[in-house]
Every structure is written in C-alpha cells, then in structure tokens.
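Morning F.,

Quick status update on the modeling queue. The single chain you submitted on Monday has been processed. Sequence for confirmation:
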Amino acid sequence: MRVYLVIIDETEEALVALRFASRRAAKTGGTVHLLALVPQQDFNAFAGVQATIEEEARARAEALATAAAGNILTESGKMPVISVRQGEGEKVVRDYLSEHPEVSALVLSAASEGAPGPLVSYFAATHAGQLPCPVFVIPGSLSLEDIDRLS
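Structure tokens below.
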C-alpha cells in the first residue's frame, strides 16, 4: 500500500500538497500521513509563559491536522495517520521518515510566487538523494481541477 506523507501548516501550499496526496492515495488504494510541525520557540520567557506559548502553538498545529484529516476522511472514507511534532522542520521530517519506512513518497508543494519554501528547497534541491522515498513537488499555482486531473 502506498503511503503519502504531507506536511501540514497554515500555508496554501500545504493544501495543494494535501489535495494531491489524498487524490493519489484514493487512486492507488493508499493512505495519507499528516505531519504537523510545531516550530521550536526562539526565545526563552518565564517558564509559565513559555509553556503557554508552546501549548498554544501545539494546539494550533493539532487543529490544522485534525481539520485536514476530516477533509480526507470525508472524501475518501479513510482516516489518515496524524502526527504533531515540535522542532526544526527538516530534522523532524527526516526523523519521521526514518521511523516510518512504510512512507512511499514525501509530498510537498512549492509556493506559487517567490522562493519555493524552506522544505521544498531543503528536500528537493539539496537532500533528495539522501531520502528513503521519492519527493513529489507540486506547483502551488495548480488549480483544484488541475490537481484532480494530474493525480
């Protein structure tokens, strides 16, 4: 069974990658894993304030992943695997792929304007040859109809 890993965040690109992965999974009898990233906090506030800030970021990431999972469940009838992890994006994704050898492809989407995004730049440009699976980079400018036709 094919397993497509999608990184979930608040960007439009994440929705494009999610749409492509969920359509591919439906067509191939596969499934989707959602990985929501909680960025590492760069500042060090009082312990109570720091804990509150980190918990709010985690709750926001969990809400994004849960909403995305609900969309996939509605469309395909299959519940995706959801993981929420804190840390540097590139390292968290590498660690997740190491822990989950069943992942068949990492699905990312490039920004429709400007730089492609940090994960696309890291995984597609400089580290693709070091991954245990292919990287699909979906253009962020594709319409929903284009994605449905191509997936």
